[in-house]
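A quick aside before the break. I want you to see a complete sequence-to-structure record at least once, exactly as it would be stored in a machine-readable document. Don't worry about memorizing anything.
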Amino acid sequence: GTGMGCPSMGIYSYELIHIYGCKNLIRIGTAGAKQPYVHAREMVFGMGSCTNSNYAELMGLPGSFCPICSFELLEKAVAAAKALGYKYHVGNIASGDQFYGVELPHGKTWEEMGVLAGEMESTALYTNAAAAGVNALCIVTISDGPEEITTAEERQTAFTQMMEVALALA
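That is the input. The structure line, written in tokens, reads:
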């Protein structure tokens, strides 16, 4: 468990990397769908992590950092999902500091920009992994979408496909 949001993920992923020597970090969790073709109970592999957080800015870089996953882990996750016959999507996810009411103040929405799902931890995970030169991947299962919301019991007991894919990467 990494808690909720970039600050908690930032602490846990930093400690896993720098205290425990982890080289491959895989986050599994839930997310909300942002596209009509991404449905409840389907997996999303977060290739990139769009954000409204200033987590990466705290690194003091001379520009904007684009948090992305490890291609090595992504490639293995896609292969595992295919081998297991699981439905999945690959693309950008939005990692926000707000759980409810995330709206962009100007211009297009995350949905209009092709973002597949929203969650709250991938930006910190990918940023810390990049800073340390290790691998990271965020695998989420859609818990709610435009037409369907899963029950708390389903989220607790039935979201096993992402766990099976994550374990296949070990």
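Two observations worth writing down. The two ends are 18 Å apart (CA to CA). Strands lie at 24-33, 43-51, 88-95, 117-119, 135-144. We'll return to this after the break.
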